[in-house]
Structures are given as C-alpha cells and as structure tokens.
Amino acid sequence: MNASPISRYLRVAQAAAVAALVCAGLAHAQDRAASSAAKPAVDIANLLVGTAPLDRKTLIGNAPPPGEMLYSGQTSPGARLPHSQTLAAPMNVNVDLIYPTGVDISYVYNSPTMIGFTAGGSAYPADAAPLLMPVVGDWTVPPNYTQSHYDKASEKATPGYYKVDLVTFKTRVELTTTQSTSLMRFTFPATDRANVVLDLRREGGNVEVIGDRKIVGLATRKENSAAAEGPWFVAEFSRPFGSFGTFRAVHGKQPATLG
Fold first, then answer.
1. Domain boundaries, the chain
2. For residue 257, what are the CA distances in angstroms to 30, 141, 231, 254?
C-alpha cells in the first residue's frame, strides 16, 4: 500500500531532523577538536591527577595494612620544569610524624590542612627542607600555629605553576620555578602581623640572616636520604624584614630562643 502524502512528509521531516541532529553533533565535535587543537597540551595537564587515594581496592590489586588509606599515585602537584634542579611544591602531610599512606610522600589530595611549601628538594621521599609558610598573627616563640586549612576550589596545579588560597590566614600562595630556583609569592591580607616561618624540619640545621632580605642556611639531611639536591639553601625576599627571630625546638623540653 502506498503511503499517503502526509505520512511521506512526516518521514521526510523525521529524516531531516535526524540529519540536523547528526550535523549539530558533528559541529560540536569539530568545535571541541578545534578548541583542543588550539590549546597546547601542556595547558591541559592537571598535576592533581595521581594525588588522591584510590577508592576501589579492585583497581590496585592489593589492600593496604589496617589504618592506611588506599594508595594514590604518590605524585606531587608542585611546579617543576623538565630536568630542573628544584621543585616548588605544597606539603599537606607532616611525614615527620605520620605516614598516612604507608610511605613518606609530601602531599595527599584529601588532607585538609597545609603545613608549608618546599622551595627545593624531593617531594618523594618527603625530606625537602626548608619549608616556608606564610602566617598571619601575633609572633610567638614558637608560633602558636602554622598549619592552615585551604580552599580546595582555589587549588590549581599545572606544569610550572601551583596556586592555593589559605583560608586560616586569608593568604594566597603561588609557586613557580626556573631550572635552578624556586619562586614563591605570598599575597597577604591588609595586616601588620604578616610573617613567613622558615622551618628546617625535625632534623634541624643552621641559618644565618644576612642584611634585611636574605637568609642562608644548611638543612640537616636524614642519614638514609638519597636526594640528589644539596642541603644548602639561600632564601631572598622581595621586601625587607620588619623584624626577625630564630628558635630551636628541643625534643622533650621547652623550645629555646636563639635570637
């Protein structure tokens, strides 16, 4: 039986609609391809990938010991250039006290507080020193607190650049690097109580303040450290110090002020 003119029209209309949808889909795919092609691959990379613990045991083929989280990729979201000597990276795991993943890595995605930022050294194992931390508050010896909660939504990690907002201190931290130098920018709120704490970690070391902008020092390494970077460091600031002081924590005793 021949179809009526109306039914033929409907079938033609439906076919045209399908063709229009296909064309629209192709157009969107072409737009996405053109957008991806226009953006360099390095700008697509997200260095936070590999920092979060896996949530499915079947994906890793084994199970960690009781009390340990499922292992992540154990990567660092810090800024580093190919074949560079430095790594400017965040640290939100205090490996001097605990290994939440069973290994001494410096960053785990779901850790809620930041303890400092490395300016050079290895993120794995996490023995980089010194750590620098911007702190807003009255200066005490030792500081009342240096850790800060941070805004996950503000965190950005791309090759050569890292950024995060510290909620506790209302301060923005930006990290980048050259082949041999790490650069850090701390944007403080309007305050006269802004401080930068330089921490030589549990192993300690020595520091010397030169003038009103520079600190040089030697960070003691763990005996089993295989890090290729040397323990010497130079920290140069863009603004003069308003004041400075040093202190030493003595295990089992009250901290002793050195200057």
1. 45-257
2. 65, 7, 23, 10
Tens-place pLDDT, residues 199-223: 887 777 888 999 999 999 887 766 5
Q: Are 72 and 51 in contact (CB under 8 A)?
A: yes
Dist CA 45 CA 56 (whole Å): 24
Provide the CB-side half-sphere exposure for 119 (13 A, CA): 23
**Token digits of residue 15:** 């076919």
Integer Cα distance of 17 and 137 in angstroms? 65
The residue type found at 199 is D
CATH assignment of 45-257?
2.70.98.10
Q: How many CB atoms lie within 10 A of CB 236?
A: 11
| Distance (Å, whole) CA 178 – CA 256 | 37
For 42-100, what is each residue's pLDDT tens digit? Answer: 788 888 888 887 777 777 766 777 777 777 777 889 888 888 878 889 998 877 666 66
Q: Is the pTM of this model over 0.85?
A: no
